Protein: Flavin-nucleotide-binding protein
Organism: Echria macrotheca
Amino acid sequence: MPRQDLEYPREPHSTVKRYNHQAKYDLETIHGIVNAAPILHISFNVPDSPFPATLPMLGHMGSFDRPSADIGDVLEVYLHGYVSSRLINSARNSEKGLPVTVSASHIDGLCLTLTPNSHNLNYRSAVLFGYATVVDKLEEKLYAMEVITNGIIPDRWRNTRTPPNAAEMQSTSILRVKVTTGSGKVRTGSADLDKNYDLDDEDLVKRVWTGVIPMYTTLGEPVPRGDNRVTELPGYLRDFVKETNEDAKAYAYDAINVEVPKKKQDDDA
């Protein structure tokens, strides 16, 4: 049987209104955006504050009950936090789970047009809505810690001292967000939002550079700690840096439908 592409339900709070042609509701796209983000931003209401709180947190999507599930399947968000943080305490004291919003975003290009008003970005963003509860089961907590660690650097978990000791486990809490709905938004393409009256202005067209500056995160050369005794960088770290840089660059150029430029010889000088 062909695989069914699952989508999140379109609720009033999750439906994209502006530029809805860029909207994404399929789980695969949204989960991919979330898992590719180095930092997630978690928003929740605080009873003793007039303002909602937003926290940057480490997190990753997964399924403890179905660990082989891919990003196109129903998944939950696991968040890594300190045991006595306000978010953890709020979730622990909530009977049905704490309502939270999880957001992630990436910028892939700066789209420069003839006027500042029509400048734009190539970007990917995702928002998930759900209920956060504290993970109490040891096996699931360890699973989530491994998923989050390997979500940052693949294979890092087994290449460190694991499992965490009792003190580390006691000071760390994991939140599981059961997602109810979500949406994404993706913009690709050129800097093509100029009005005809500007395009017909010969002097303006000759004076102002237009186009896209691809934008992507680049990982630098790993720097060993002063007391590091491993003489050669492990292969899994070398491959991670190389592949991450290549993939990020390729996506940014693919978003404007051009080939990645050849590396100039003087780049290595």
About this structure: The mean pLDDT is 95.
